[in-house]
Amino acid sequence: MTWTVYLSGEIHSDWRDEIARGSMTAGLAVIFTRPVTHHEASDDVGVALLGSEPDKFWHDHKGAQINAIRTRSLIEKADIVVVRFGEKYRQWNAAFDAGFAAALGKPLIVMHQDEHAHALKEVDAAALAVTSSPEQVVAILRYVIDGDLPGYTDKAASR
Amino acid sequence: MTWTVYLSGEIHSDWRDEIARGSMTAGLAVIFTRPVTHHEASDDVGVALLGSEPDKFWHDHKGAQINAIRTRSLIEKADIVVVRFGEKYRQWNAAFDAGFAAALGKPLIVMHQDEHAHALKEVDAAALAVTSSPEQVVAILRYVIDGDLPGYTDKAASR
Amino acid sequence: MTWTVYLSGEIHSDWRDEIARGSMTAGLAVIFTRPVTHHEASDDVGVALLGSEPDKFWHDHKGAQINAIRTRSLIEKADIVVVRFGEKYRQWNAAFDAGFAAALGKPLIVMHQDEHAHALKEVDAAALAVTSSPEQVVAILRYVIDGDLPGYTDKAASR
Amino acid sequence: MTWTVYLSGEIHSDWRDEIARGSMTAGLAVIFTRPVTHHEASDDVGVALLGSEPDKFWHDHKGAQINAIRTRSLIEKADIVVVRFGEKYRQWNAAFDAGFAAALGKPLIVMHQDEHAHALKEVDAAALAVTSSPEQVVAILRYVIDGDLPGYTDKAASR
Amino acid sequence: MTWTVYLSGEIHSDWRDEIARGSMTAGLAVIFTRPVTHHEASDDVGVALLGSEPDKFWHDHKGAQINAIRTRSLIEKADIVVVRFGEKYRQWNAAFDAGFAAALGKPLIVMHQDEHAHALKEVDAAALAVTSSPEQVVAILRYVIDGDLPGYTDKAASR
Amino acid sequence: MTWTVYLSGEIHSDWRDEIARGSMTAGLAVIFTRPVTHHEASDDVGVALLGSEPDKFWHDHKGAQINAIRTRSLIEKADIVVVRFGEKYRQWNAAFDAGFAAALGKPLIVMHQDEHAHALKEVDAAALAVTSSPEQVVAILRYVIDGDLPGYTDKAASR
Amino acid sequence: MTWTVYLSGEIHSDWRDEIARGSMTAGLAVIFTRPVTHHEASDDVGVALLGSEPDKFWHDHKGAQINAIRTRSLIEKADIVVVRFGEKYRQWNAAFDAGFAAALGKPLIVMHQDEHAHALKEVDAAALAVTSSPEQVVAILRYVIDGDLPGYTDKAASR
Amino acid sequence: MTWTVYLSGEIHSDWRDEIARGSMTAGLAVIFTRPVTHHEASDDVGVALLGSEPDKFWHDHKGAQINAIRTRSLIEKADIVVVRFGEKYRQWNAAFDAGFAAALGKPLIVMHQDEHAHALKEVDAAALAVTSSPEQVVAILRYVIDGDLPGYTDKAASR
Q: Which InterPro entries does the record associate with it (chains A, B, C, D, E, F, G, H) (predicted)?
């Protein structure tokens, strides 16, 4: 049984690849999906493909709707949704994805630094795990997918 | 037929009451619901009712979960969800509510100032109207609920 | 038990009022809902309320989205959806509403003239009744809601 | 991860094959599905398989219902629905499919010429992209499925 | 809290009225809904309202579809569905309604004589109660709605 | 794309195998599923596996519930449901399956002889095709799955 | 707006009435629903109404299914589900109700003593509040329904 | 067609492996899924991966929520859910899983000893089979998946 995990949120660090590498190392049967993380492509895709817009609002709108084709489809196909909030920017799209996933009943894993905990308390309250690093996410996926917990299951035949 | 409209988001101005007053003046058959907007009550409700927590994370968690009993119920009961993003704070809960409402298929009206348009483009792309003032929301509700559009429907018997 | 019936489609004749009057005369416990049928209001509502658009596409888009707040809500609240196709115009919104209602599992009654039967065969195939006049719709509602069929149930105590 | 895209609407040009060829050239992992596009077969399938009908209405009805077995199944299985409106005919079935897909929450891409924009404004308002050529649809699929945007992602390692 | 109970199936005895009278005597807050039980009206409604059909199949089809507007709506609105199988006829519509209600997750009460038990075993297996008389149905409704069980709850203040 | 078709109903002739053979000859990508069609096994499975019951009602009940594990699962997994009503027996389980499939929105193909048409009119009214032979079902599947209609699509490159 | 709260679980103390009284004193617009709490009636309802069973298993089965008509309907109608675990008995039905409510997405409030916390950790993890007394439940309902938090909202005009 | 069966409940005997071995011997096309059954790992996973908690309640909470990522996903992916209640402990999580599965409409097989029958009557009433041994579960799966019933189908060509 292969699991599908959608990695939403912050696009300025390589946390997605860290999770993917860690999961590959652990041998997990998991497919990771993600939004388009090329910032300029994501901003301009609407006008690049469907014609320029003099008004920045519609420039953004056309792009955001094309991105939504990808992101909503992938969230709906996912078994688990991970949302990372970074240090910078308002990242309302990350919180939007978290709400979207929660309403669909998708198990939600949130990742952020401690200083954002209070501001993210409603999002955290909808999550089944609140993490602060890609390593923690990989460890959770190892446990959830394979039932492995270092220091416990490696001591005995647990299954 | 009475409509129910949930007013989510910013809690530091009286925009909800403006919408309510404007709708009452217009004679709309609408019930407005809202989160608890008393900031301290909303923050402390968990520990105030269920016992203190030395760890701020769990202090917040207990409160946020009790707030979620109210907010998720009211979003699900709503015909329309209005989400206002204010000038300050990160307001991730507002974006979370918008995503939650969108996944449930609720018609979404967003309210924010122009300078946030780019940061909110994914949220706006999920909305059926992007507004900047309570007056605009009232005008939309008048049209949606009663079919009234000043300058048009007052000139003739439209229905 | 009160029924709710949404009357979608053609806006250039008074078929909705004929159905409403006929149902009132028959004493049916039914609430009729409808889109905004003032043509100019429906076209211009977006720019009238949220600011003008130099590009006609966005002029239309803003209006159509506000209309969707009303129409999608009312279709979802309806027990039965009636869609009338008139003589003129392409009326793609009528067919869109029919598809929308069908996917939600709403019982669908279609009204159109015979010459459109071939072009509407896919829509008719999704309907539970294909009618050609408001009188037929009223007669169906009398039967569906009250169980009355002239020439049959008026001869005996049928219920 | 393979995507499934349903191509609904106009059947008198080879736009479906253009999209399929373009997607194959781009190496996309996508399966395209479509209605039966042989016009006479589509019209006559009911009577050809289940016996002739003297009344044209039932001739059409039997055929349209058999077509619905295919089209509704394929729309429900699709990740994305593309609907093209051509130059001719009323194409109510295309608009019906668009409404059906919208109510199921399927991401919708619409294709039509500019002169139909006003008449299709309600359909466009439900779409996440409004296009005018098969090339644009292929470009959107490349972006949505593979994250490729020429001029952007080919300049750098985007993922 | 008022309950709604749909009474499906056999139309040749007055079991529906017995249940209604018994429930009224017991003072239950319950609304009973039912199909049109006038046999000839139910058979002919299609042609009576929408024009005659030379082919009996379409005569029946038009009528059955109009009846479906009523029956499917009422089953979906019901809290509980009661289906009675009588002594005569094949009553496939009763079994169809039972399957329809079961798939919607409606609590199902079946009523039939013992000699049909084997033939109805699949239907009974989907039911939460298998009864043989209107009195039993009333007694179940008294218990389910009001919590009254003669010989038990009348001996003490149970609530 | 492989289709799954559930074959419900009459178990005393080999119609299922005829459909399967015909589909294999036509080269269709289809998996057929079916209830357990061994009559005695189907009747006795409950007591054979879980212990005998002195009361025939519970004997039947235990068996019918185990059969339901199979039949409900397979109906829910099916793309299309075919229900055949034979000459004999009351076949309430066939009509129950048809109602169950209809409520789930599964495309329904019914098979029966003409003399049952009136008694089955409510079931037929919920179907997208009413057939009288396995050959007709195979022909419909060829059209629905592969788009082939002899006399039409074999004359030309239809796709 | 009236709220509906289902009170599931332990039936040997009067906690339900305490919550109802407390809510009435607080003036909350809330309807409380509950299972039949008369222990013997609940155990015997099946055989009392539908005939005795020599086998205790079927005695219980008939009763439990009739109780399920009430309990599942009321859980589905509820806005909030409260489940109390008492000191005694295994109370598997309480945990079953909690799982049932959780899968339906109902906000869940759990009530139990501290010594059961470890054994109930999976149930608590699905809850939005874990309480230990009727007073706490009333206080939560006051906050959730009316936005009142003593010591906070009574100091100021909070809404 | 491969079936997926989730094995919930008691973790102190090797009943899951017995079912898996028996099914493999029978050649069934079935994938078995299960919770993490290493007791200590299951208890401690939250703090082991996300940091220690001085308060046992939160220690448990963090672990139970991570376990829920696995268990809820697997129940939703399952075709059939088997829940075993053992001799010891309160096993509220087993009953919770049964309720969760029931609300999702999953066919439920329960396994327990006779002495628990009365206490589990509500759970049993939601099940399609009540068993007492892994052998019975394997026999049911053989019948449900392959249609094999020893003493019946091995005497004849049943399919």
A: YtoQ_family_protein
Q: Which chain D residues contact residue A51 at CB under 8 A?
A: none
CA atoms of D81 and D33, how far apart (whole Å): 10
B4 exposed, middle or buried (CB, 10 Å; 0-12, 13-18, 19+)?
Answer: middle
User: How many Å apart are CA G80 and CA B3, to the nearest integer?
Assistant: 22
- For residues E7 and H100, give the distance between their C-alpha atoms in angstroms, rounded to a whole number: 30
Tokens of F31: 């998996």
Nearest Cβ partner for F66 among H79, H143, H152: H143
pLDDT of amino acid A156: 57
**Residue of B69, B37, B32 whose CA lies nearest to G5:** B69
| Total residue count of chain C as it appears in this document | 159
F140 vs D49: CB contact, 8 Å cut-off? yes
Of A107, A109, A140, the CB nearest to H73: A107
The predicted structure's pLDDT at residue A159: 45
In the prediction, which pLDDT does A158 show? 44
Quickly tell me which residue has 């005939």 as its tokens: G51
Question: Complex ipTM, two decimals?
Answer: 0.95
Q: Going by beta carbons, is chain F in contact with chain A, meaning 3 or more pairs sit under 8 Å apart?
A: no
Distance from C-alpha of H44 to C-alpha of H92, rounded to nearest angstrom:
18
Chain H residues with beta carbon closer than 8 angstroms to that of G97: 99
Strands (E), G3-122: 3-9, 30-33, 80-84, 108-111
Question: Which among A35, F75, A31, C117 has a CA at the least distance from the CA of H79?
Answer: F75
- Residue where the block lists tokens 């049916």: C28
C-alpha H157: how far from its chain's center?
32
Could you read off the pLDDT of C119-147 as tens digits, one per residue?
999 999 999 999 999 999 999 999 999 99
Using an 8 Å Cβ cutoff, are A125 and A108 in contact? no
Assign F117 to helix, strand or coil: coil
pLDDT of amino acid G154:
87
Instruction: Measure the CA–CA gap between F124 and F118, rounded to whole angstroms.
Output: 9
How far is Cα A10 from Cα D88, in angstroms, rounded to an integer?
47
**Residue F103 φ/ψ, nearest 5 degrees:** -65, -25
Which sign, positive or negative, has the C-alpha torsion D3, D9, D11, D15? negative
Q: Angle at which helices C92-103 and C56-77 pack, to 10 degrees?
A: 40
What sections of chain A are H helices per DSSP? 15-25, 39-50, 56-77, 92-103, 121-125, 134-141
Q: What are the CA-CA distances from residue B111 to residues A1, A45, A63, B85 (Å)?
A: 44, 25, 20, 6
Residue range D56-73: mean pLDDT, rounded: 98
DSSP 3-state of C11: coil
Cβ <8 Å between B136 and C50 = yes
CA distance B80 to B92: 20
Note the pLDDT tens digit of each residue in H89-122.
Answer: 789 999 999 999 999 999 999 999 999 999 999 9
Q: Is H23 within 8 Å of H137 (Cβ atoms)? A: no
**CA pair distance B34, E43, nearest whole angstrom:** 51
* Residue bearing tokens 């059909």: E53
| Residue G155: predicted pLDDT | 74
Residue H5, beta-bridge partner list: H32, H80
Six token digits for residue F46 = 């409950």
Torsion angle of the four alpha carbons D8, D11, D16, D18, in this order, in degrees rounded to the nearest 10: -150
State yes or no: pLDDT of C158 exceeds 50: no
Alpha helices in E55-91, H assignment, sequence order:
56-77
Chains A and C touch (3+ CB pairs under 8 A): yes
Contacts of G14 (CB under 8 A, 6+ apart): none
D57, two tokens: 């209405």
**Residue-level pLDDT at C156:** 58
Chain G positions touching B38 (Cβ under 8 A) are: 147, 149, 152-153, 156, 158-159
pLDDT at B155: 74
pLDDT band for position D155 (cuts 50, 70, 90): confident
